[in-house]
Amino acid sequence: MLLLDSEVACQLRVSLLDTERLARTPPVENTVPTDVVSLDDRMDQRITHILGKTVVPMFNALIATAGEHRSELVNVM
Predict the structure, then answer these.
(1) What does pTM read for this prediction?
(2) Whole-angstrom distance, CA of residue 9 vs CA of residue 49
């Protein structure tokens, strides 16, 4: 690096700096995950989960009380 003005010094400097830059850049691994679940499958799973936790219990409660309401209506008439 002490040679300042010669063409060889410039070439050597560029070569050394390029080598150092390449040595500092870590390699990147771009692996593709193999267990990718499609968006449609994830949406189906989420909808099924929500229906199972909210709508189904609500319908079960309505069905359970429907008989009570029917007998009350028959008694009123």
Answers:
(1) 0.38
(2) 69
